[in-house]
Amino acid sequence: MKLPKIYNTYFVALIATVGGMLFGFDISSMSAIIGTKQYIAFFDNPHGVKQGAIGSALAAGSVIGSIIAGPISNKYGRRDSIMFACFWWIVGTAVQTAVTNTGMLIAGRVLNGVTVGITSSQVPVYLAEIAKKEKRGSIIVIQQLAIEWGIFFMFFIGYGCSFIAGPASFRTAWAMQFVPCVVLMVGLPFLPRSPRWLAKVDRTDEAIKTLANIQANGDVNDPLVIAEWEEITTVLALERESGGGWQIFFKNGMWRRTMAGVSVQAWQQLSGANVMTYYVVYVFQMANLTGNINLISSGIQYALFIIFTSFIFFYIDKTGRRSLLMYGAIGMAICHFVVGGVLSAGEYVPEGVDGNLNVVIRVRGPKAHTVIAFSYLLIIVYALTLAPVAWVYAAEVWSLETRATGMGLASLGNWVFNFALGLFVPPGFANITWKLFIIFGVLCIGAALQVYFTYPETCGKTIEEIEEMFADGGPRPWHTKPGGSKLDAKIEEVREKHGRNLSVDEKILNVDEKKPTSVEHIA
């Protein structure tokens, strides 16, 4: 029996982004647990490289997921690749729930990471391909919001389970990760396939009908549908003429898009924000917070994350991508420098604060309050800028032929650095202490410089038009501005040229007969 499809883009986004919620669940399934007595006792007080290996196992699996995501998505579709990812999550969560030792915990997190690698790359691709240009940013931001709600829910589930004695404490918390995965698996069959993927695999009739259902309430004669379909198929034909294979990511002007997509994801990690999301309990221990007060204070940070990302949801398609990325990186750099500077005046505790060997520095009084305040401020800036915008920008820069694999490549940049940082941060806290924050501050300045010189503005343009921004001879990034799409003019042209009575067959015929004469603008 063929299930009915729901074409409302916000509903589609709410279901699809549960894949992001899985990522959030896995993040705080550790951050809420690592400071509890039950966890420390059962896993023999893991610290340094051992704790780093546990924390980075998710990212290690996500590297694998990012590599396989593109080929799977290209062959089976964006929606079905997300369904495929769910099965890895079911197995990984089962392994974590039954955990008996550190190796088993790492294995379960690696399996869950494969899911996160696929969903974190293909959910933004799917949303970018179904959303209108005026709403694309806000639609993809729902992915980041889902991640944050997942972090928030799981953190307080972990906090509640911390009152359960023995290993049942963390096993119960980790078992709760089944719930969002089941919700996602039930909802996915009701979502439409991406019309751009359907066009890519030459399912023309289905593609144009899906596009019409998404953009014009099923009216295949709507000028918007005609104009956008012509744009999709014209660009697709040009891309196919330009060849395929891995070399397509680096030849002509395509290297600019590859660099932008991969680097914006890498900078999201190198900004140091995940120090706060993965290891905020450690940072607040440095600020002399202990026990339940530490956990609740950490939970407040996650609430701020949600509140301020929700705020940017309404403005991301008005303010543009470049300014948010650039000024966000500068703001985060300032926060890192302040936290690092204050901690440099702290006392050294070689036996570990409260016996935690990952935390060997502590400040008290006004210094502690400053660390807490600027830790919160850093997350607020991150929630308004790099956290949501990096996913949006990385999903926008690719062409139709390269988007699934390209986004997998971009996510690979994210997860490689996520893995490296997850492994490095615990021993970094123990060995270079406050200097870690200075390093992240300097990296944030580097991110701002690259954004200014190499990232053109993509806001308000169709994902086909964005190709021109990266092409040889395209505008300098610092000269680009939000808006200025040519699609509106093309809609009027279609309305004047064809009228409202053009049939579906005629439109498809007209589009198929529109043969490109040059591939020079394809980057």
From TrEMBL:
GO molecular function, one term: carbohydrate:proton symporter activity
Protein name (record): Major facilitator superfamily (MFS) profile domain-containing protein
Location(s), subcellular: Membrane
Record NCBIfam families: SP (TIGR00879)
Family affiliation: Belongs to the major facilitator superfamily. Sugar transporter (TC 2.A.1.1) family.
Record has Transmembrane helix as a keyword: yes
Domain Major facilitator superfamily (MFS) profile residue range list: 12-459
Annotated source species: Polytolypa hystricis (strain UAMH7299)
Keywords associated with the record: Membrane, Transmembrane, Transmembrane helix, Transport
Matching SUPFAM superfamilies: MFS general substrate transporter (SSF103473)
TM region positions: 12-33, 53-70, 82-100, 106-128, 149-168, 174-191, 266-287, 299-317, 324-349, 369-394, 406-426, 432-453
Membrane topology field: Multi-pass membrane protein
GO CC annotations on file: membrane
Coiled coil: none
InterPro entries linked: MFS_dom, MFS_sugar_transport-like, MFS_Sugar_Transporters, MFS_trans_sf, Sugar/inositol_transpt, Sugar_transporter_CS
